[in-house]
Amino acid sequence: MGRVPYARSGELPAAAGYPGRVPVTPFRIVAVLVLALLMAGGVALGRSPRQTFEDRRVVSASGRVYAVLRTEDAKIRLTLHRRREGAAPLAGAIRSWGTEASLRPDIAADPRDAELCSTLLGRTLTHVRVSDEPVGALLLDTDGALEGGAALCFVGSGGRIAWTHRLSDIFKPEELQDPRYMHWDWFRGLWLDGAAFLATKGNVLVRVALADGRLERVGPDVLRERLGVGTQEERELVLELVSEWNVGGMRASAEALAADEGQPLGVRVRAAQVARAQGGTAPYRDLFARAVSPKAEQAVRYAGLLRIVPMLGEDAFDVIVESVSSTYPGDRSLHLAVQALTTLKGPLVPRLDALRRTPVDADTHTLRLLALTSLNAIGTPEARELLWDTLQHGDPVAAMTSFHLLVEAKPEDLRARLVAALKAGSPIRDAIGRHLGVHPH
């Protein structure tokens, strides 16, 4: 049994995500603001964050075949298994490092099931799909592919590599030089439907024959057959591609998905977007209010906030404010809420002015943070003046927030206004004095 050629491509994490939550006190709010909001709330530059591979069990669509992947001596051991006749399918599971060890699920194979093969992979692996026919595991290495390693390969039931593809096989020569394609998030998604379908940035959709690895670019008509089919992740991906590619004739199907209470919120939100883009008029306020609620899953909140303004228009303001009222200040959803608010049309500054004046208590820090960062993002003289007013007359936390925002924005009159605030007795005179290099008293 040979090794999958991922070992040549360097380390690669499992699916990229966001840092876990940490306890918050009022004393940390300014630091969180600087780190999480002023720095744009996420990974900004060219490489994906690397994480340790998380052991997992991956199950085929029928549940009859599954793979168990475990780290072993800095590599990954893959075993393929066939479920015994009459036994219920096992569930897929990941032993996430972010979960307490005692709560991590068991991913072991059932000892009564047939082991088809066992092979040792290289250290880099991000996505795994298990196929019923032909039996095998499709392996994807997103980051290592950018470093010249294999992007995609198929390990058959005997543990041998049936084929491999690098990015130079998937993309055209001119695309390999184009940052729209060649970026750490070049991969959009993957599903199996008799063959593998690989979606990438730049609206590229490739069909890969599992038996021999033959590649064929396909058009958006493939998406029509996949709407509402597959795992939640796959359904969401197809809806996003339908929206981005403007695949017509999907309104009725999308409206049905959006109205289906049995569908996950992430699917319904994306279906509503497709339905509205294709002429639908159904109201979706309740749907989006649920999607952006602090009780919703993080990924659903992000999806809802990215879409809420074009869906709800002016009604989005109150829904957004309510959605972040109890949000952890470093949560990316707060950054997305700022982005959403600042795209609203109409007289937004007066509404944000009222929001920044929310009475001060432990539960209103996030609302005032939302107002101040939104005013800074708007950046008009009227909006900027409200930041100066807060620096001069607000409570210490709000004043410090405004101070950091103004220093980051660097208006032409920054030093003169800070000197004036220092002389007038701002509640954060010490911080202003340190910035100016003068004694505040």
Architecture overview:
With 441 residues, this protein is α+β, with helices and mostly antiparallel strands. It has 17 helices and 13 strands. The strands form three sheets. It has a five-stranded antiparallel beta sheet, with no helix packed on it. The protein has a four-stranded antiparallel beta sheet with strand order 6-7-8-9. Strands 10-11-12-13 form a four-stranded antiparallel beta sheet. The longest helix has 15 residues. The radius of gyration is 25 Å and the shape is elongated. The N terminus is likely disordered.
Short description:
With 441 residues, this protein is an alpha+beta fold. The protein has helices spanning 29-37, 142-146, 167-170, 221-224, 232-245, 251-259, 265-277, 285-291, 298-312, 316-324, 332-341, 348-356, 365-378, 381-393, 396-409, 414-424, 429-436; strands at 56-59, 65-72, 75-82, 93-94, 114-121, 127-131, 136-140, 152-156, 161-165, 187-192, 196-200, 204-208, 215-217.
